[in-house]
Amino acid sequence: MIKALKEGFLHYADFSGRTARAxxxxxxxxxxxxxxxxxxxxxxxxxxxxxxxxxxxRFVELIFGGGMVTPESLDVxxxxxxxxxxxxxxxxxxxxxxxxxxxxxxxxxxxLVVLLPTVAITVRRLRDAGCSVMWVLPPxxxxxxxxxxxxxxxxxxxxxxxxxxxxxxxxxPAVPPVQ
Length: 179
What we know:
By secondary structure, the protein is mainly alpha-helical. The protein has eight helices and no strands. It has helices spanning 2-10, 21-54, 57-64, 76-94, 98-113, 115-128, 137-141, 147-164. It is elongated. The N and C termini lie far apart (49 Å).
């Protein structure tokens, strides 16, 4: 995996050539693990806060007290004030979250850093699988903050994911020029 990460970052903007399945998946899994490792403290703190909320009677009563929850039955002002009060109590008990904040920022920066190498290695992998390199567009378009475009692009990204799983296709010999 270390070798795949080195190769991916060395050829971060090389969109020519091919990348085998193992190299592609080792790079993708390695970068995702690095990002997850950076964000792990914040994720654990989130679960700890979620557990705190679910064990507080005020929150549970606010959400589930009226039976079935519908958009009309939610009192947004009451929910906001209860959540603000609970967050203040939680902060007083557990202190500020500087480590978690640094981890989130570091994870976000790392995600931006690996974006270009990931697009490049995906283009090389699609070429190696014998697919059109245009299939790299759905995962990139899914990052746009446009609701319908990003939703459709996320669904089409599944096709790209399947294509990245295909085995290597042998290169076809060059067609001789017609005389």
